[in-house]
Amino acid sequence: ISLTTIHGDEPCWRIRTMGKGGDRERFLVPLDGVGVYINELIEYQLELKNRDLPPEQRIENINWDEPSPIFYEYRGEPMGSFSRGFAALMKEADLYIDDKGKTRDAYCLRHYYATERLLSGVSIYTLAENMGTSVSVIQQHYGHLRPEMAATELTQMSIADRERARRVREEQEA
Question: What kind and span of H or E run contains 50?
Fold first, then answer.
């Protein structure tokens, strides 16, 4: 995980991860504001790693050049699965069952992210790259969003058309 400058002067988190099979390294860019939580996770990780060490052996920083998990269980072990913890959280918040009667799992966060990004105007191509999947998978799972996505595009086009029409009117009146 690193904080890099990707566009202009704006700092942006860039997260190095491995594909599902662990055979392909890739980078992803999270939403703005995620850095605050990444910093909290890093501090927690250092706290866990240093918990039982004498002061002279404590770790100051994490070497991100080496593969290192960022999510740890309270015992200090790398988290193997989010399933139980996520299910417990959803049950406690009374959100475990959705309005269609299906249980929510951690994967639903991926679907929520994809849906929100597409509806906010992120291109299918950019989203597929950032999520480490193909354009065809995005189209297959989120094709039902096309009407909303097209409405935004068409509205933007109509604003441009109105601007052109306003300029033409001004030229004719002059």
Answer: helix 34-50
Hey, is 26 helix, strand or coil?
Answer: strand
Phi-psi region of 59 (alpha: psi -120 to 50; beta: other; left: phi over 0): beta
What is the Cα 8 distance to its own chain's centre? 21
Instruction: Indicate if the pLDDT at residue 31 is higher than 70.
Output: yes
8 Å CB contact between 76 and 49:
yes
Q: Residues with Cβ < 8 Å from 127, sequence gap 6 or more? A: 114, 117, 118, 138
pLDDT digits (tens, 9 = 90+) for 40-53: 887 887 887 788 88
Other Cβ atoms within 10 Å of 36 Cβ, number:
8
pTM of the predicted structure, to 2 decimals: 0.65
* Closest of 5, 30, 37, 36 to residue 15, by C-alpha: 30
Phi then psi dihedrals of residue 109, to 5 deg: -65, -35
Strand partners, 103: 97
Strand partners, 164: none
- Alpha-helical (H) ranges within 56-145 are 83-92, 107-119, 124-131, 135-142
